[in-house]
Amino acid sequence: MLSQLLGDQGAAWVAHIWPVVQPAGISGVVGYASGLLVRKVVQMVVLAAAILITAVQGLAYLGWVTVHWDRVTADVQKLIGGGSEGGMDASQLLALLTDRLTAVASQGLPSVAGFSTGLTLAFMPGLQII
């Protein structure tokens, strides 16, 4: 059937590249699914953080609590290694997390390139494959 559609030369070409394309396709689907999961988790974490900060700020506005935002900022900078001691900025932290996510989630997959492509496609704004 394939040779009827593509001809003998096209069928031979597809048979030649199929061992390379098939693992990349499977890895791409796994990468896309992982990306969707990570994107949803990040959205939920950001929403929870926004609700928490809004609630604390509302309580501070009402005078029920006192928030020392300078201490909060200093503690967060220590946590992520930022500040004057030469730690990471936000882009370096994001790059590190992306590298680690790709390394962990693609362990044992036949094609890291396919996984990375699928993961990237899941994070593209406005693109809905599923």
From TrEMBL:
Residues spanning the membrane: 20-38, 45-64
Superkingdom as given in the UniProt entry: Eukaryota
Matching InterPro entries: FUN14 (IPR007014)
Keyword terms: Membrane, Transmembrane, Transmembrane helix
Cellular compartments per GO CC: membrane
Main localization (coarse): membrane
Cellular localisation: Membrane
Family membership: Belongs to the FUN14 family.
Name of the protein: FUN14 family protein
Source organism of the structure: Chlamydomonas incerta
Higher taxonomy: Eukaryota, Viridiplantae, Chlorophyta, core chlorophytes, Chlorophyceae
